[in-house]
């Protein structure tokens, strides 16, 4: 009897600790790489500044579109901002900025202070729309071509290596 | 002594760095700003991961120092072992700080300005919330060590109970206050008008509280009747293990909340290894030393009622633990994200609270060893009285659900029984009566508050007025003000209760903080002894209208007062214990 209790207690505890260990690694291992190569069937975002809805029609004529999810309250977004500004000078690429769970005045102030790299400005006030694009936290960016096929996906702030990767894709035409 | 001093020097150096805004330290740079008020510069010291760990170690050290000097009349062997284990814990946390949470890491080049403390954390209640809760959490370490020492040195009698009793009471009192301050903060800062959300992080602070409460009661049995020794030991170990587990869950980033400071997995791994070692060593000693007790406990005695209290506490503990861990488990094992919310806790815990309150009223009147029930008549009168009061409330105001009726009747039963105890007994245990009475009041006020709250939600623009039910609202003015670290739009809103003709002006705020730039909504709360008016205002994009959320929360202040009284009960018990020994 005592032996059974001992072993049950031990098994339960080790199980709990094991699950903690798994989830500890899991939360850092989150990735949506399997989305690369998939087609975005439907694009729909409300404009941040105007009464307008962006749909896939708006991006058809672009060779490549980078969808960037950002917010004024997000510190890493400030870090990647210079990269976005650099990217905005590329001919083959248009950038759609999706303002995520933010307040409009904060968002516009952010762009006024740091510069506006976006060709299109959209919003996702509740953060629910972004889930459809596999967005987990921000900043995240998705690079699509003119057939809406996901070419690349970036989790976390864009860095110089990501910048080179993007250039490689968009200049391969 | 030396250890205590050096750790304190360490801590005050960090406080000083925050005070003079020394941004060459990463911690200071990330969490402070030169324009911040002094009070928040100081509280910024523990408002971050590194500083809070330092605070954790300080409390560990102070407690072990006090334990050393205050328990001179216990065997040297037992005290020595307690200190060894306590110092192993201190060492573990010191290594943690040194290896990957060093508060004194430098940043190069030295930034001119800091990033600022998150504005919702710039709040007096929140500034004292971590130290209070930490004294509760970390205070439990000393009886963890003592329990281990007691098993190793076979110091297993009443004297062991006496040596840890004060420490249990201290940590319980501070834990209660810490939870209270956190709830008060959530109530006026988060802007939902609620004060308890069964959020995993709140649960993490509640779990050790249940274990401590059970421990206080089982210690009584050990002290008076010299039984339940191993059960008491298990509770001692469990309390600190739950505290560390709570810290692990909250800090590792497995749970996302305002308390998650950093998502650095190496920190999580460290605490997890520490936790596993703690659990496995304590289990090892427990299994090795465990001897089945052969005490026969009479089913009608005080011992039984204390055990019943413990069962209930374990039931709450397991319920809350399951609710907290279940989403983590499903996420880890099946990758499906679910959340366990208030409906689960409310439906599992509330019905059980009713029985608990009845037993809590009857328990203290029983005798040790063997009891004779002679006062059935009395109990019957009190139940009848509670039912009458309950239906008077229903008759005068409004009716509520069946379960709410039971909750209110049972809490009244506890209140009346506790009061009649004061009148009856000669040798009054004030601390017990105060705690039980205020717990009864706490449940009563939560019940009434829940059933009699009102909420109105509408839009208003400047100068406009609106009449809803028996309230009339006028948005009289919008004031723009500039404070040292934020700008704010203050709405001047007049609330007129047409049935009582009571006229009040409330001033909800929309704040725009400078560093980091963020927008927050500040509720305006007007409190009196009968009710709170709770009002928040938020701007609506592209419109002159403001969204107004108005809530009337009856007897709100009494909920806080009950919890304060509850912790006073703990404090009185501490004094009583100090006097007796």
Taking the sheet with the most strands of chain A, its summary is:
7 strands, mixed
The SSE order of chain B reads HHHHHHHHHHHHHHHEEEEEEEEEEH
In total, the number of domains of chain B comes to 2
Could you say which structural class the secondary elements and strand pairing of chain A correspond to? alpha/beta
What is the total number of structural domains of chain A?
Answer: 2
Strand arrangement within the widest β-sheet of chain A reads: 2-1-5-4-3-6-7
> How many beta-strand elements of chain A?
7
Query: How do the SSEs of chain A run, as a string of H and E?
Result: HEEEHEHEEEH
Please describe the biggest sheet of chain B, giving its number of strands, its sense, and whether it closes into a barrel: 6 strands, antiparallel
* Unreliable residue runs of chain B: none
Q: What value does the Rg of chain B take, in angstroms?
A: 26 Å
CATH class of the largest domain in chain A: Alpha Beta
Oligomer: heterodimer
Which geometry of chain A do the CA atoms define? elongated
Key structural traits:
heterodimer, A: 173 residues, Glutaredoxin, 7-stranded mixed β-sheet, 4 helices, B: 581 residues, alpha+beta, 2 domains, 6-stranded antiparallel β-sheet, 10 strands
């Amino acid at each position: 009897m005592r032996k059974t209790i001992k072993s049950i207690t031990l098994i339960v505890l080790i199980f709990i600790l094991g699950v903690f260990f798994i989830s500890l690694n899991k939360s850092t291992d989150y990735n949506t790489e399997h989305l690369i190569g998939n087609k975005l069937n439907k694009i729909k975002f409300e404009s941040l500044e105007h009464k307008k809805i962006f749909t896939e029609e708006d991006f058809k004529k672009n060779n490549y579109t980078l969808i960037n999810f950002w917010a004024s309250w997000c510190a890493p977004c400030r870090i990647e901002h210079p990269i976005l500004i650099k990217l905005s000078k590329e001919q083959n690429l248009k950038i759609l900025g999706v303002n995520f769970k933010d307040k409009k005045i904060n968002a516009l102030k952010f762009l006024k202070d740091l510069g506006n790299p976006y060709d299109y400005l959209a919003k996702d006030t509740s953060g629910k729309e972004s889930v459809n694009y596999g967005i987990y936290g921000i900043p995240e960016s998705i690079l699509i071509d003119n057939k809406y096929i996901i070419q690349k996906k970036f989790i976390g702030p864009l860095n110089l290596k990501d910048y080179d990767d993007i250039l490689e894709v968009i200049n391969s035409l | 002594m030396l250890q205590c001093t050096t750790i304190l020097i360490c801590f005050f150096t960090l406080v000083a760095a925050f005070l003079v805004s020394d941004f060459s330290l990463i911690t200071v740079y990330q969490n402070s700003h030169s324009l911040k008020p002094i009070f928040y510069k100081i509280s910024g010291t523990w408002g971050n991961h590194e500083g809070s760990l330092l605070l954790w170690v300080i409390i560990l050290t102070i407690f072990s120092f006090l334990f050393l000097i205050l328990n001179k009349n216990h065997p040297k062997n037992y005290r020595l072992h307690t200190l060894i284990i306590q110092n192993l814990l201190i060492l573990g946390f010191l290594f943690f700080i040194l290896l990957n949470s060093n508060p004194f890491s430098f940043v190069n080049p030295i930034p001119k300005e800091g990033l600022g403390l998150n504005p919702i954390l710039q709040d007096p209640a929140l500034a004292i919330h971590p130290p209070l809760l930490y004294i509760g959490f970390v205070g439990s370490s000393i009886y963890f060590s003592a329990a281990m020492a007691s098993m190793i040195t076979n110091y297993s009698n009443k004297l062991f109970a006496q040596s840890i009793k004060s420490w249990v009471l201290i940590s319980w009192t501070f834990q209660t206050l810490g939870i209270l301050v956190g709830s008060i903060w959530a109530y006026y800062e988060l802007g939902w008008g609620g004060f308890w959300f069964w959020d995993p992080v709140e649960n993490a602070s509640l779990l050790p509280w249940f274990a401590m409460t059970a421990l206080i009661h089982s210690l009584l049995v050990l002290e008076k009747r010299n039984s339940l020794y191993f059960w008491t030991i298990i509770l001692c170990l469990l309390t600190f293990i739950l505290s560390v587990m709570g810290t692990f869950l909250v800090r590792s980033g497995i749970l996302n909340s305002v308390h998650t400071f950093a998502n650095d997995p190496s920190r999580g791994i460290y605490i997890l290894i520490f936790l596993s070692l703690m659990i496995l060593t304590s289990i090892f000693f427990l299994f090795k030393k465990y001897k089945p007790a052969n005490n026969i406990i009479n089913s009608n005695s005080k011992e039984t009622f204390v055990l019943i209290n413990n069962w209930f506490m374990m039931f709450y503990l397991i319920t809350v633990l399951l609710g907290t861990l279940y989403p983590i488990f499903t996420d880890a094992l099946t990758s499906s994200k679910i959340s366990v919310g208030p409906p689960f806790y409310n439906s599992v815990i509330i019905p059980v609270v009713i029985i608990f309150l009845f037993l809590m009223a009857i328990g203290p009147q029983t005798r040790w060893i063997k009891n004779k029930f002679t006062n059935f008549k009395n109990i019957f009168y009190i139940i009848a009285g509670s039912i009458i009061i309950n239906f008077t409330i229903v008759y005068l105001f409004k009716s509520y659900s069946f379960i709410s009726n039971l909750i209110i009747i049972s809490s009244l039963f506890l209140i009346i029984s506790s009061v009649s105890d004061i009148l009856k007994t000669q040798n009054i245990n004030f601390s017990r009566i105060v705690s039980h009475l205020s717990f009864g009041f706490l449940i009563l006020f939560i019940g009434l508050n829940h059933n009699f709250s009102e909420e109105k939600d509408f839009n208003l623009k400047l100068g406009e007025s609106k009449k809803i039910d028996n309230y009339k609202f006028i948005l009289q003015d919008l004031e723009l003000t500039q404070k040292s670290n934020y700008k704010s739009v203050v709405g001047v809103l007049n609330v007129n209760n047409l049935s009582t003709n009571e006229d009040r002006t409330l001033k909800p705020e929309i704040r725009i903080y400078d560093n980091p730039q963020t927008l927050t909504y500040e509720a305006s709360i007007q409190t009196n002894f009968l009710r709170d008016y709770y009002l928040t205002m938020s701007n609506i994009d592209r419109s002159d209208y403001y969204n107004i959320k108005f809530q009337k929360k009856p007897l709100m202040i009494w909920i806080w007062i009950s919890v304060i009284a509850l912790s006073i009960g703990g404090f009185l018990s501490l004094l009583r214990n100090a006097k007796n020994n």
